[in-house]
Design goal:
Blueprint (H helix, E strand, L loop, with lengths): L16 H20 L3 E2 L5 E3 H4 L4 H5 L4 E2 L17 H8 L2 E3 L4 H10 L8 E10 L11 E10 L5 H17 L9 E7 H10 L6 H8 L2 H15 L4 H5 L2 H4 L5 H11 L4 H20 L6 E3 L13 E7 L8 E6 L13 E7 H11 L12 E5 L2 H16 L4 E3 L6 H10 L4 E5 L1 H6 L1 E6 L4 E6 H9 L3
Parallel strand pairs: 1-5, 7-8, 12-13, 12-14
Antiparallel strand pairs: 2-4, 3-4, 5-6, 6-11, 7-9, 9-10, 10-11, 14-15, 15-16
Helix pairs in contact: 1-6, 1-14, 6-13, 7-13, 8-9
Length: 462
C-alpha cells in the first residue's frame, strides 16, 4: 500500500501548543467578560436538522450550509429524475447539516427548553461553526464563534451592555502592550433601513436593499448602486440615497439628520428612538465609548435581524469585521414560540487571532503553559525534585520536571524552546543546603532560595 501524504481540508487549520495558548488567551478574556455581565454557558450539537437551519440566513447563507449525507444507502429513496434536480434530491439524501452559526441553534434550544429557563435568559456559547465559503485570509470554512445573547426582553439596556462588553473585551486583549488595536464599533438599526426603503418608495424590498448596502465597504458606492439597479430599484429611488452616502458628523448630528430624512416613516422613527435610548443609557452609565460610530449604511446581511445591529471593524489592520450581532424579534417564531425578542453578539476568534498576531498584542507569557521547569543534575537530585515538584503543583503552580537527568544544556534548551519563564536547578549543593537555584530565563538572573520562598514568590507574597 502506497503512503499517502497527509493533508487537511481547505479552509481549516491545525493549532499547535503555541497557537492554542494564544487562542485560550482570547477565549478566556471573552468568557470572563460574558460572565461578568451575567451570561451563563450552554452548548448545542455540531449538527442540526436542516429544517432548523434552512431559510434563516437568506438565499446566500443557505448556499453556504454544509449538508451531511444520510447514513446507509442514501440513494435508495431517490428516483432517476431526482438525480438531475438538486432541489428534489437534497431532502431525500440529506436531513442534517453542520451549524452555520450559534444563534439559530440557540433559538431552537430556547424553544425546546422554555419551561426550564429563567427569562430574560442570558447565555454565552463558544463553539465551532462551518460555512462552505471560498477560503481566504480571515475567512475559513471551520471557525469558532463566541456568542452572547439575551432573550425575552425588549430593553435597550441589553444593547448598551453589548457595547460595553465589546469595549471591555478589546481593552483586556491589549492591556499589557504599548501598541494598540484601533477599531470602530459600528451601530445601526434595521428599522432605520426599513424607513430608508420606505422613503425610497420601494416597500417590500428591504431584504434586497440590506444585502446590497451591506457590501458598501467591500465594493464601493457605485457598485452598490449598480447592484440595487439589478435588484429592481428605480434610479430615482437610488438618487434619494445620496445624502446618506455623504452623511458625516458625530452620532448625535447624524441622528438629528435622520429624524428629518425619515420624518414620513413611522418605522424609521422607531429605529431612531431605539438608538437614542442606547446612547442615553450609555451616558447614564457614565461610559466613554469613543469607538462607537453610527453608520446608516451598516446592514448585516443575515435576514433575521429586526432592530439594532452591530459590527466591529479594525482600522489599523486589513481585516473584515471581527465582531457583529444585533436584535431579532421573530427567530423563535419559526420554532413555535412567538413574541420573544432577543439580542446578541458574536466575536470572531479566528480573525481576532490574526489581528493580535499582526499587531503583536499577545502578552509575553501567552505561549507558555508551564510557569517553572525543575532541572536536575543526576539521579539523586532528580528524585529530590519530585518532592519540590509536588509542593509546587499542590499550590496550583504550573510546574514540570524534565523527565530524566540528562545534560544540563539539553534541559535548558527545552525550557527556552517552550518559553518557560523560570527554572529551578537542583544539584548536590542545593540538596545539602535546601537553597535551590532559581533562574529567571527572560532576565538571565538567578538567586538561591528555599522551596518556601519560591512558593511565596509565585503566589505573590513577596
Amino acid at each position: 500500500m502506497s503512503k499517502q501524504k497527509p493533508s487537511i481540508p481547505k479552509g481549516t487549520r491545525d493549532f499547535g501548543p503555541a497557537e492554542m495558548a494564544k487562542r485560550h488567551f482570547i477565549l478566556n478574556t471573552i468568557k470572563k467578560v460574558y460572565q461578568k455581565y451575567g451570561y451563563a454557558p450552554i452548548e448545542t450539537p455540531a449538527m442540526e436538522n436542516l429544517s432548523v437551519l434552512q431559510g434563516k440566513y437568506g438565499d446566500e447563507g443557505d448556499q453556504l450550509l454544509f449538508k451531511i449525507l444520510n447514513s446507509g444507502d442514501f440513494l435508495s429513496k431517490t428516483e432517476e429524475e431526482d438525480r438531475f434536480d438538486s432541489k428534489s434530491l437534497q431532502p431525500k439524501i440529506s436531513e442534517k447539516g453542520l451549524r452555520y452559526d450559534l444563534t439559530v441553534p440557540f433559538a431552537r434550544f430556547v424553544v425546546m427548553n422554555q419551561h426550564n429557563l429563567t427569562f430574560p435568559f442570558k447565555r454565552y456559547q463558544i463553539q465551532p461553526v462551518w460555512r462552505a465559503d471560498r477560503p481566504q485570509r480571515g475567512r475559513y470554512r471551520e471557525f469558532y464563534q463566541c456568542d452572547a445573547d439575551a432573550i425575552g426582553t425588549n430593553s435597550m439596556l441589553c444593547e448598551a451592555e453589548i457595547v460595553l462588553m465589546i469595549q471591555e473585551v478589546f481593552k483586556s486583549l491589549q492591556a499589557k502592550k504599548a501598541n494598540s488595536l484601533d477599531y470602530a464599533i459600528k451601530i445601526n438599526n434595521r428599522k432605520i433601513l426599513s424607513g430608508i426603503v420606505e422613503v425610497m418608495g420601494a416597500e417590500g424590498k428591504e431584504t434586497d436593499f440590506a444585502v446590497a448596502i451591506d457590501k458598501l465597504d467591500k465594493i464601493g458606492e457605485e457598485k452598490v448602486k449598480e447592484e440595487l439597479i439589478e435588484r429592481g430599484f428605480e434610479q430615482s429611488a437610488i438618487d434619494t440615497l445620496s445624502p446618506l452616502f455623504a452623511l458625516s458628523g458625530d452620532n448625535k448630528e447624524q441622528l438629528n439628520f435622520l429624524k428629518g430624512f425619515l420624518k414620513k416613516s413611522e418605522m424609521g422613527q422607531k429605529g431612531i428612538s431605539e438608538l437614542t435610548d442606547v446612547f442615553d443609557i450609555l451616558d447614564s452609565f457614565g461610559a466613554n465609548v469613543p469607538q462607537l460610530e453610527l453608520d446608516v449604511t451598516l446592514a448585516r446581511g443575515l435576514s433575521y435581524y429586526t432592530g439594532a445591529i452591530f459590527e466591529v471593524k479594525p482600522k489599523n489592520v486589513q481585516m473584515g469585521s471581527i465582531c457583529g450581532g444585533g436584535r431579532y424579534d421573530g427567530l423563535t417564531d419559526t420554532f413555535g414560540l412567538p413574541d420573544v425578542s432577543g439580542v446578541g453578539i458574536s466575536f470572531g476568534v479566528d480573525r481576532i487571532y490574526d489581528v493580535l498576531e499582526e499587531l503583536e498584542l499577545y502578552p509575553d507569557n501567552a505561549e507558555s503553559s508551564t510557569e517553572v521547569l525543575m532541572v536536575s543534575f543526576d539521579e539523586e537530585s532528580w528524585k529530590y525534585c519530585l518532592k519540590v515538584l509536588h509542593r509546587l503543583r499542590t499550590a496550583n503552580i504550573r510546574a514540570e520536571l524534565y523527565p530524566e537527568p540528562i545534560k544540563l544544556k539539553k534541559q535548558m534548551k527545552y525550557a527556552n524552546d517552550k518559553q518557560i519563564p523560570f527554572v529551578i536547578l537542583v544539584g548536590s549543593e542545593e540538596m545539602k543546603t535546601g537553597d535551590l537555584t532559581f533562574k529567571n530565563m527572560k532576565e538571565g538572573t538567578q538567586e538561591s532560595m528555599n522551596a518556601e520562598s519560591i512558593l511565596k514568590r509565585f503566589l505573590g507574597y513577596e
